[in-house]
Write a structure and sequence with these properties.
This protein is an alpha/beta fold. The chain contains 13 helices and 21 strands. It binds adenosine-5'-diphosphate and zinc ion.
Amino acid sequence: MYFNERIETMERLQLRQLQSERLVKLVKYTYDNVKFYRERMDEAGVKPEDIKSIDDISKLPFMKKQDLRDYYPTDTFAAPMKDIVRFHASSGTTGKPIVAGYTQHDLDCWSEGVARCLTAYGVTKEDVVQVSYGYGLFTGGLGAHDGAQKVGAAVLPTSSGNTSKQILLMKDLKTTALCCTPSYALFLAESIENDPNTDVEKDLHLRVGIFGAEPWTENMRKELENKLHIKAYDIYGLTEVSGPGVGGECEYQDGTHLWEDMFFPEIIDPVTLQPVEPGQEGELVFTTLTKEGMPVVRYRTRDLTHLIYDKCRCGRTMVRMGRILGRSDDMLIIRGVNVFPSTIESCILELPEFTGQYFVTVDRVNNVDTFDIEVELRPEFYGESMDKLLHIKDRLVGRLVSVLGIKPVVHIVEPNSIERSMGKAKHVLDKRKLSN
Ligand code: ADP
Ligand code: ZN
């Protein structure tokens, strides 16, 4: 089922035409209204008239997160403040947050993106959608909320946290679709398991999981599907581009469709900044083709992934994105080897003895990198003999060495000892950065 069949299944040639028209307008709009774009384009020697179609996009300069910080809070806004109807902000763990401003039209486009995702997951007006993403400056809560309302579902805006109340309402209001980070979904699932008054099969009505805002793996999908008796779907987005719903999976779960009529994606080599060969891994770059409040042109997301342009079996013509390996800044370089936390997660969940909870600590001692991973045993394996535990640990270390090409020190810890996250999980402490 489609939310907007005409657009979602548009012939690619026609889509290209639409993207071209929108890009030409956008470039003129940003050049006229935002000093940042004017200066950058002038420096690059590009005039709005040079952009005649989407094929000319590579003539335009890139924008980086630092640019948004430098122009904090609103100097990259293109619409006058009287037309802004909402602000959001990214978490800003490393310095000033990024502030995004939305016009009513921007909010309409954003909720359309979320509505397309929800419809692809089979959510309709018959559903009760529990939004357990945080509400507030974070785009997750209100973004999912507006999209669910747009498809006519009943929204249960629980926000994150207060887990026992979440479970109570989930039961009593018969939630069918759950929206949150995969980390929080895992925590909710564990809490339901430990709740003697709630049986997933008998007491819950969950059918669909809508998970995003952080990287997660196929093994985590299986874990959440088994625990919650749902089909779990990916939803992707970022504050700078709008929020969740820049794209989502379809029923075939063979990549995340990106709504290219609104958010034009490119993949570049983060070092040379040149486009990669089609299908190759690289950094995802977005241009917002319909945004008015804070449009971005060739914004470097730092998310690493690849794009698939073949037509999908679902009939949608919109490009698909492979799973996000992580942000380039989440990548750890340990003894010269590149390591993504999501790869570690995937290895841990291959073994039935462990929960998906883990924590990585990296440090440098006597000029050598140390690499420690805490992994949590499932309660049913907690009483195992020392021999058995050592054997389990060796299996995990062996698997990690073969996949990562580097040997970590694995520490098996008690069930429930790793801190749970209500939103985006923090899986890594890199002490090398602290001492710099
Ligand atoms: P912040 O930058 O403060 O974390 P955002 O909520 O805007 O704020 O985060 C967006 C980022 O979250 C994306 O750039 C991406 O790295 C990550 N993300 C969002 N959705 C997904 C997803 N489905 N899979 C993997 N990563 C995701
Ligand atoms: Zn599809």
